[in-house]
Amino acid sequence: MVHMSSKPQRLQKTDAARTIDPDEAWRQVLSRDPAANFVYAVETTGVFCRPACTSRRPLRSNVKFFSSGEEAVAAGFRACKRCRPGDASPLEKIRIHIEKNLDRRVPLAELGRVAGLSPFTVQRLFKQSMGASPLEYQRALRAATLRTALKQGDTVTNAIYNAGYGSASRAYDSAALGMTPAQFALGGQGEKIGFTSAETAYGWLVVGATARGLCWLALGLTAAAAEHSLREEFPEATLQRDPTLKDMVHAAVRLVEGKASQFDALTLDLRGTAFQLRVWQALREIPRGETRTYSQLAREMGDPKATRAVARACALNRVSLVVPCHRVVGVSGSLTGYRWGIERKRKLLDAEKI
C-alpha cells in the first residue's frame, strides 16, 4: 500500500499557466535543485537549461524563467547541449526504468546511474514529485497490473506472474487488495467488509473498511443509496454493519470543516493504477479552501498532456472527502464533474472557505 503524504508546493500555480516565483526559482538555479520543474533561459547566449545544469551560472539580470522547454523554444531560445532540457528529465528516466523492471527490486544506486544522480537525491526527488518512494511506486504499479488483469478475467496464476510477483504469497502481501487475488477477481467473494453510514450536513455518508483499512467512503441522498454504492463495488463480499466505523465518518466531516488537519491516523486501502495513485496524492496536497482545474493539476504533476486522464482518475476516486476531488473545478471555475452532485460539491467548497 502506498502511504500518501503531503508535501509543500515549491512554485506558485495559476489556472492559465504556472506562475513562477522568480526569487524562489533563482534560488533553485543557484542550488542546482534537481527537483525544480521549470527551465531558465539566458538572454545573452540564447540558450535555456535545466536548473540542475552544471554550466556556469549567468547574471541574474540576464535570466528568464519558463514553465517548460516548449515555452522557451517558442520564445526563441535553443536547448543547452550539456543538460539537454529537451530530453527526458531525471524523474522520467527513473520512472521509465522502474516500469521496465517490475519483475525485480531496482536498487537506488541503479536508479542513480540511470538518472545521473546520487541515490539520496533519487529517493528525495522521486518521493517529492510522486508522493511515494521508488520502491513504493514499483509495488503500486505491480498491484495495479495485477488488479487490472484479474478484473479482465485473466487466471490468478497468470495475473500474479505477469505482474512481476515471484509467488502468490508475495502478491497477497504486497498488492494492497485487502483480500487475496482470487477473492478480488470474484468481486470480493469470501471477503468481509465492515461498513456503516451516517447522516451529515453534506448528505448520507457510508464508509467501508477491510482488515487493511478504509476502502470506500461515498456520499448519497439516502442511507440506502450510499450503502448501495459499496455493494456495487464488492457484490460478492460479505458486508457486515459495524457501528464503530462511525468514527471514520465523523473524522471525514471534521476534515472538511477544518477541525482536523490530516488523516494520517487512518489507514487507507486504496485501489487504483499507479497514475491514479499519483492523482489522488496530488488531490490531497490541494490546501483546504483552494481549488485547481484538471489542467492545472496535470501540470502540477509534471504531466501537462494528461488532463483527461486526471479527470478520469478524479471521477474514479473511491474515498471522497479524504481524497478531496471536490476541490477540482472547470476552467471557468464552474463546478463540473463531481460524481456525488454539483450542489453537494458547492456545499463542501463553501464549508472549506470558512
Largest sheet report: 4 strands, mixed
User: In terms of per-residue confidence, which ranges show pLDDT below 50 for 5 or more consecutive residues?
Assistant: 1-18, 164-187
Nearest-angstrom radius of gyration?
Answer: 22 Å
**CATH top level assignment of the largest domain:** Mainly Alpha
Number of separate domains = 4
The succession of helices and strands, N to C, reads: HEEEHEHHHHHHHEEEHEHHEHHEH
**Average pLDDT, all residues:** 77
For this structure, the CATH topology of the largest domain is: Arc Repressor Mutant, subunit A
Measured by DSSP, the beta-strand proportion falls in 5-15%
Give the name of the CATH architecture of the largest domain. Answer: Orthogonal Bundle
Structural class: alpha/beta
Which strand order do you get reading across the main beta sheet? 3-1-2-4
CATH superfamily of the largest domain: Homeodomain-like
| Strand elements, count | 10
The global form is globular
The percentage helix is 40-55%
Span between N and C termini? Answer: 34 Å
Number of helix segments? 15
Summarize the structure.
With 354 residues, this protein is an alpha/beta fold. The protein has helices at 22-30, 69-74, 90-99, 108-115, 119-130, 134-151, 156-162, 168-174, 181-185, 223-233, 246-256, 274-284, 294-300, 307-315, 342-353, and strands at residues 39-42, 47-49, 63-66, 78-79, 192-200, 203-210, 213-220, 238-241, 292-293, 328-329. A hairpin with a 2-residue loop joins strand 6 and strand 7.
